[in-house]
Amino acid sequence: MNFLDVSGATKSFGAATVLDGVDLGVGQGEFVSLLGPSGCGKTTLLRIVAGLLGVDRGTVKLDGQDITALPPHKRDVGVVFQNYALFPHLTVAENVAFGLKARRRGSTETASAVKRFLELVHLSDFADRSVRALSGGQQQRVAVARALAVRPKLLLLDEPFSALDRKLREGMQIDLRRLLRELGTTSVFVTHDQDEALTMSDRIAVMNKGGIEQLDTPEAIYRKPATAFALEFVGLSSRLSGKVVGTQDGLVTVETSFGRLVAPGNFVSGAPVMLAVRPERITVDRPGDFAVTAKLRDAVFQGAKVQLHFETTGGDQLMAETADLPHGLPAPGSEMKLGWAVADTLIYPVP
C-alpha cells in the first residue's frame, strides 16, 4: 500500500488546467522526485499535498488517512521551501525549535531534538548564531533540520538547492539523501534538474503538461524512457527520424538518413518514428550490431570523457561520449565510424 496516495488530482487556475487527474503513490520511507520543466504542475502538486492549495477534484491520503480537506497544520507534513523561509530574528537553535514549541513539546524534549538535528546537519557549533550570519548552504541545512525536528510523516522539498553553487549543491544532495535514509523519512522532492533527481531519488515522476509521463526508478527512466518527452528531458541522446520499412519477430527496420537501422519494437510499415541511443552506448571506430559513418562537427573535452557531435540533416542529432581516444581529440570534419547494439536502440512514434 502507498504511504502517500494522490488520486485524480485536478487543479485549474481560470481557463488553464495545471493538473489533469494526476495519480501519485509513494511508499513509506521512499524518496520520490517530481521532475519536469517550469509550468508542468510539479510545484502545484506539492502544494496540494502540503495543504497550501486545494484540489478541484481528487483526494490526498497519508498513512491511510484522507487529508484532502485538512488545513496544513493538521497534516503532519514538513515543508522545506526554495527560499528556506527562516525567521531572521531567531538564532539557528530557535529556528529549529520553532515547530516543536508550536506543537507544545516539553522543554527537555525540544532541547534534545534541537541538539540531535543540528548534529545531523553538522551545525552544532552554530546553534547560537543568527541565521543572517550563515551561508546559503548553512541556511538550507537549518531549514531541513527545522522541518525534520518535528518528525513529520512526510517531508516535502520545493527546489531547496536552486540558489546554491554547483559544488555545494552536489554536496548537499548526498548529505540530505543520507540523512533521510538514516531517519526513514518519506519524502517528495520538486526539481527541474535531471542530475539532481537521478542522484537522490528512489523513483522519479517525470511530469509534463499537468500529468505524469513516467514514474519509475532513475535507472529505468534513463535506460528505458517510456515516452519521447521522458527521453529528451532526462539525459542526452542521439535522435534519428525515419520511416518503418519492415517488421519481424519484435524488431523494426527503419529507413534513416544514415541508412537502415533496427530497433526492438512493434510499429506498422510506413509509420514515421524516431530512433534514439544514449551517447555513451555508441562506440567509436568499433562496430556494434551495425555501423554508420558520420562526419565530426565538434569535439568537446569534458575531463573524464569527450563528447563528439556529428553532422546531420533536418532535426536529427547524432552524438557519442567516449573516454577512449588514444590519438587525442579528432579534428572537425573527420569521418568516423560509429556503432551500437540493437538492444540499446529506442524507438518512439514521432512526437
Walkthrough of the structure:
The chain is an alpha+beta fold. It folds into 2 domains: 226 residues, P-loop containing nucleotide triphosphate hydrolases (Rossmann fold); 114 residues, RNA polymerase II/Efflux pump adaptor protein, barrel-sandwich hybrid domain (OB fold (Dihydrolipoamide Acetyltransferase, E2P)), CATH 2.40.50.100. The chain is built from 8 helices and 20 strands. Strands 6-7-8-3-9-10 form a 6-stranded mixed β-sheet, with helices on both faces. It has a 5-stranded antiparallel β-sheet with strand order 13-12-11-14-20, with no helix packed on it. Strands 15-19-16-17-18 form a 5-stranded antiparallel β-sheet, with no helix packed on it. A hairpin with a 7-residue loop joins strand 17 and strand 18. The longest helix is centred in the middle third of the chain and has 18 residues. The chain is globular and about 75 Å long. The model has no long low-confidence stretch (mean pLDDT 92).
